[in-house]
């Protein structure tokens, strides 16, 4: 073949790829997904107090033709489009009545913090995501916003529910999420427009003045920055439960939850006779079982592009992408033996029968779609967990202490030693 023909072929291939990408992303110009209700003609006028549940599909945004699936992947599209039944909840009776506290959320999840009559702090976290804040300007200028919007299909809409069930079996503290539909209602007050008639995960907040864990003598559940402030006050009278944190982080790796930065954690402060112990509480499981395929997601998840964005596969092929400054800050002083011992405990607790039984927290049609594949991958990772634990430990030791404040702690006045390591202050 002549050089001219090679060049023509090359440019034709590039043209086909570019056209395929634009064909793929042109399927919708929507940015925010929403649920589709069945047998409800008008949600605005329906009296939902006469219903106890509603049938819906989590989102109508991720349906795809064959071209889109090649370019942007299959992901968990089928789960997002699956028909399910969820309970309807009114906040004036939930947990004795909820008081609205404040609107929150990250770059894609809308959340509403609430205080129950039981004194516990709860949160509503939107199942449907809003990708506006995630879209860079250059993609907007190229009219390729859908690359980011559609990427949310790599998240499983029911991930948090299964992750919590597995966490319970693994002896890892969690926020007990459950899926429900919140109609518009007076108790939402001025939040009614933004939060009414939508699908949510109701779960414990990772901070609460009242203990919601099964642990005894817990005085408070606080954020990481508040934990650091408490450490400054109590000094050597406060330590973290390093074993529990290692266990939690190894559990993250088992379920493929790559997004475990500092703001994803709370700490249960347990008082003993002589000191205080901070025990980690993992929140926000949006990215458990995160799966990328297709041309664009695979390119973005390459270790040389976005190293943290690790797809949930049978093995962990790039441990460095899963190690956060959070890990170095809290675990740099923890011996290797604890990593190995906690890996062995997880291997013994999460047996094949336990993993298979855990799927029962999902509706049958969701189990049929993704259950077998997810459990198979967890089993493969579990069998290699000791090796991963050693890799995890060695990377933490190689990276050493952190050199700048953790996310959310930038405004705290910390010594250089305390910036670098929780137990070094």
UniProtKB/TrEMBL annotation:
This is Uncharacterized protein. It comes from Winogradskyella bathintestinalis. The chain crosses the membrane at residues 7-25. The keyword Transmembrane helix applies. Keywords: Membrane, Transmembrane, Transmembrane helix.
């Amino acid at each position: 073949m002549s050089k001219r023909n090679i060049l023509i072929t090359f440019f034709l291939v590039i043209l086909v790829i570019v056209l395929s990408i634009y064909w793929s992303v042109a399927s919708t110009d929507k940015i925010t997904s929403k649920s589709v209700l069945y047998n409800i003609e008008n949600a605005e006028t329906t009296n939902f107090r006469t219903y106890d549940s509603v049938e819906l599909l989590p989102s109508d945004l991720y349906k795809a033709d064959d071209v889109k699936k090649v370019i942007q992947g299959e992901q968990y599209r089928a789960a997002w489009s699956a028909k399910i039944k969820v309970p309807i909840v009114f906040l004036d009776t939930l947990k004795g009545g909820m008081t609205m506290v404040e609107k929150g959320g990250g770059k894609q999840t809308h959340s509403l913090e609430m205080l129950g009559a039981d004194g516990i702090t709860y949160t509503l976290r939107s199942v449907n995501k809003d990708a506006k804040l995630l879209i860079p300007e250059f993609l907007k200028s190229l009219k390729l916003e859908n690359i980011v919007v559609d990427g949310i299909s790599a998240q499983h809409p029911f991930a948090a529910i299964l992750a919590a069930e597995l966490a319970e079996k693994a002896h890892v503290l969690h926020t007990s999420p459950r899926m429900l539909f919140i109609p518009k209602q007076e108790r939402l007050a001025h939040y009614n427009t933004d939060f009414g008639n939508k699908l949510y995960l109701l779960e414990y907040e990772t901070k609460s003045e009242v203990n919601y864990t099964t642990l005894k003598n817990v005085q408070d559940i606080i954020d990481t920055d508040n934990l650091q402030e408490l450490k400054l006050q109590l000094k050597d009278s406060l330590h973290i439960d390093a074993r529990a944190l290692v266990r939690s982080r190894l559990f993250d790796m088992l379920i493929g939850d790559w997004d475990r930065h500092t703001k994803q954690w709370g700490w249960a402060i347990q008082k003993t006779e002589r000191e205080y112990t901070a025990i980690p509480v993992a929140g926000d499981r949006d990215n458990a079982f995160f799966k990328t395929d297709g041309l664009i997601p695979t390119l973005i998840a390459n270790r040389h592009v976005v190293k943290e964005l690790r797809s949930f596969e049978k093995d962990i092929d790039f441990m460095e992408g899963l190690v956060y400054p959070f890990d170095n800050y809290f675990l740099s002083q923890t011996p290797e033996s604890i990593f190995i011992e906690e890996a062995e405990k997880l291997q013994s607790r999460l047996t094949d029968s336990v993993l298979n039984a855990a799927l029962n927290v999902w509706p049958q049609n969701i189990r049929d779609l993704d259950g077998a594949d997810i459990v198979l991958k967890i089993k493969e990772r579990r069998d290699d967990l000791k090796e991963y634990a050693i890799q995890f430990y060695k990377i933490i030791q190689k990276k050493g202490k952190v050199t700048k404040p953790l996310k959310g702690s930038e405004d705290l006045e910390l010594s250089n030693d305390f910036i670098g390591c929780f137990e070094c202050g």
